[in-house]
Specification:
30% of the residues lie in helices and 32% in strands. It contains two helices and three strands. Strands 1-2-3 form a three-stranded antiparallel beta sheet.
């Protein structure tokens, strides 16, 4: 999995219907509904989101991995 900027990750989530619910410090919290289930996703506002963190975001979101590649 490649590295993305936090802006790119947020754009992907927003295109899939996720909505920014709150921000606390350098972390953004998104909420969306995927396959009838409510999902909460935390996105760090780091210059680049590392592959491991991006994998966690994919798991939290319930979205297909290929959307983030």
């Amino acid at each position: 999995m490649r590295t993305l900027s936090w802006q790119q990750v947020c754009r992907i989530l927003e295109r899939q219907g996720f909505v920014l619910r709150r921000q606390r410090g350098s972390h953004l919290r998104y909420r969306g509904i995927v396959n009838g289930e409510e999902k909460n996703v935390t996105v760090p506002r780091h210059r680049t989101v590392k592959p491991g963190t991006l994998g966690d975001i994919v798991n939290q979101s319930g979205l297909p991995k290929d959307l983030f590649e």
